Amino acid sequence: MRVGLVCAHSGPSRPIDGPVVGTREHIARVAAELAGRGHDVHVYERRDDPALPATLELDGYRVERAAIGPAAPTPTAELVSHVAEFGRWLADRWSGEWTPDVVHGHYWVGGLAAAQAVRETDIPVVQTFHSLGVEQLRHLGPQYDGPGTRIPLERALTRAVDIAVAQCNDEVDELTRMGLQRTSVAMVPAGVDTEQFHPDGEAAPRDQRHRILSVGGLSAGHGQEDLIRAMRLVGDAELVIAGGPPVDQLTHHVEARRLRELAERTGVADQVKLVGAVPHDQMATWYRSADVVACTPHYSSAGRVSLEAMACGVPVVGYGMGGIADAVVDEVTGKLVPPGDVRALGVTLRRLLADNAGRFAYGHAAVDRVRCSYTWERTAGALERLYERVVGRRRPVEAA
């Protein structure tokens, strides 16, 4: 099967410091897994650096870059005006010798370009949003900073695709509220690299205190503020916050400074440690060093951090929403608490840190759950079956 994966941002092949993470990792791993299954996979991305080659062979699939928009990293809001041009570029690429059997758009801007490119063809479109503006607005409120055009354009995109891929059950519900029939929504969670994330291996240095680890960007909505407030109820333990800029830049980082001031005011400054950005290929050592990983973002569709922690055999305490609620089985692989309930968060962390046998059992169950349900091989297999289904729907039946 010929598969075209479309991302309007710079994609998985863009050189960055360390391995690709998040949406970029998702596209790269799906492309490589599908190629390994014998499919002819092309990834289309925006060329945001003139020094990058226009085409590239990578891990069994082909990357093609469109010289669309500014030749520099560009905010999403500014990419919207280039969607039509990107769609025309894709349509031109697909009018030659190589035409995809199915197109899979990633993120809403990539999906809009993909849908425009195939609108005069019978090529089916699959769409993964990775996050939804309306859901982010609901959970983040005033902290939501997405472009104003995003929500109406995402609604329009749901009417132009054959199947929308959700990464968690909350997203399935949201997509149906946006007007999609339930039969037009498929739930395919993201995978975890279990060769990188596993219980055996080195752990980051630590002292004798219990360690709670929080991983995420230092920006509004990631929940570090809730954790700092909860530490008053936890007792003698350290909270390590990984994410944001490199550690040598934290002094001048606005959010890092605000979190440190909050820790001072709440009397837990000696228990809170910000370590800055950690390369993704070193994250497993940090997960293994923790007694508990706390996942408290106000919005999370994929639950990547909870899955990586579980793959390393570490129990998770998280807010019961989005991908975290799907990944963490309450009282089996960790504990779920109501989103925003700082008291419940602190009490739950304290009790779990005091329960050595419970953490051991949760950690073992967490590894089993990831290896059974959240590998990239399983994700690619589910997408492969989905592609076959939509291609079968669109392909005309030959006359007898």
UniProtKB/TrEMBL annotation:
<dbReference type="InterPro" id="IPR028098">
    <property type="entry name" value="Glyco_trans_4-like_N"/>
</dbReference>
<dbReference type="Pfam" id="PF13439">
    <property type="entry name" value="Glyco_transf_4"/>
</dbReference>
<feature type="domain" description="Glycosyltransferase subfamily 4-like N-terminal">
    <location>
        <begin position="22"/>
        <end position="196"/>
    </location>
</feature>
<dbReference type="GO" id="GO:0016757">
    <property type="term" value="F:glycosyltransferase activity"/>
</dbReference>
<dbReference type="Pfam" id="PF00534">
    <property type="entry name" value="Glycos_transf_1"/>
</dbReference>
<feature type="domain" description="Glycosyl transferase family 1">
    <location>
        <begin position="206"/>
        <end position="357"/>
    </location>
</feature>
<protein>
    <submittedName>
        <fullName>Glycosyltransferase</fullName>
        <ecNumber>2.4.-.-</ecNumber>
    </submittedName>
</protein>
<keyword id="KW-0808">Transferase</keyword>
<keyword id="KW-0328">Glycosyltransferase</keyword>
<dbReference type="InterPro" id="IPR050194">
    <property type="entry name" value="Glycosyltransferase_grp1"/>
</dbReference>
<dbReference type="InterPro" id="IPR001296">
    <property type="entry name" value="Glyco_trans_1"/>
</dbReference>
